[in-house]
């Protein structure tokens, strides 16, 4: 497994557990890193994803919901929601990963953790979101700065 993929896997597991249990993200991450240590730069990437996604989960979900109208967010599997959140955060908020790479990584996570239909669902939603990257980037950054 590629190193950044491993970091995404850890972030996904932490986000999933936090959604399911309400546990502290920091504590869950530290437990994961004790179980499966990784280089500091990769642990930092996992931490960045978690700290980037959690505060804006509702905003990310709103964009995702627009592109998956047949699937209300409360009916989308928790693992699928978090895969989508991570990818959207990477290419539209943090702008740290090229769109195609973020989508491919999300599809790989979907294959590892989701159901048989998850990779196709993730690809479709993210493909639709990718076409609106600049609009999403502007909206998210303006709401994060407190303007509309």
UniProtKB/TrEMBL annotation:
InterPro entries: NusB-like_sf (IPR035926), NusB_fam (IPR011605), NusB_RsmB_TIM44 (IPR006027). GO terms for molecular function: RNA binding. One of its GO terms (cellular component) is cytosol. GO terms for biological process: DNA-templated transcription termination; transcription antitermination. Gene3D superfamilies: NusB-like. Transmembrane segments: none annotated. Keywords: RNA-binding, Transcription, Transcription antitermination, Transcription regulation. The keyword Transcription applies. It comes from the Bacteria. Pfam families: NusB (PF01029). The keyword Transcription applies. Residues 6-130 form the NusB/RsmB/TIM44 domain. Belongs to the NusB family. Involved in transcription antitermination. Required for transcription of ribosomal RNA (rRNA) genes. Binds specifically to the boxA antiterminator sequence of the ribosomal RNA (rrn) operons. This is Transcription antitermination protein NusB. It comes from Longilinea arvoryzae.
């Amino acid at each position: 497994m590629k190193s950044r993929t491993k970091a995404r896997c850890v972030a996904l597991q932490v986000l999933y557990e936090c959604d399911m249990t309400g546990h502290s993200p920091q504590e869950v991450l530290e437990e994961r890193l004790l179980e499966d240590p990784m280089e500091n730069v990769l642990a930092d990437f996992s931490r960045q994803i978690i700290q980037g996604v959690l505060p804006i989960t509702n905003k990310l979900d709103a964009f995702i919901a627009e592109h998956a109208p047949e699937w209300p967010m409360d009916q989308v599997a928790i693992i699928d929601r978090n895969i989508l959140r991570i990818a959207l955060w990477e290419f539209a908020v943090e702008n740290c990963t090229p769109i195609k790479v973020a989508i491919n990584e999300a599809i790989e996570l979907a294959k590892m953790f989701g159901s048989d239909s998850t990779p196709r669902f993730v690809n479709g939603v993210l493909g639709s979101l990718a076409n609106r990257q600049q609009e999403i980037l502007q909206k998210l950054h303006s709401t994060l700065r407190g303007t509309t």
